[in-house]
Fold this sequence. Notes:
Oligomer: single chain
Structural class: mainly alpha
Radius of gyration: 15 Å
Number of strands: 0
Amino acid sequence: MSLKTIYRTVPTSTLGRVAATAWISACLGVLAFGYVQRTVHDMPLAFTWFMIILTFPLGILGVLVAGLGWPALMSALGYPYEPFRDELPIWVVAFVLGYCAQADPLRQAL
């Protein structure tokens, strides 16, 4: 991936950059929420729904694939369930898909 490809996903207007910064901050906030609340039994459910909402519509597919694949892989390798560690792949996949889905329309519209 070249720098030109990455640069094309960055909004050019001030409003677009503010919106992208707010969205990235919200995603990072969900990640911080997951870490701080990792001992709460409902954290994975809330974490997953927050990421689905923030990365809609592609986030649904990413969360489904990562949410089913990663725990199965960890179980097959013999690692015990750990809520925050098992949510990290969901966050990464949803973040990348959500940014890619929103970056191009945001760049063109704003």
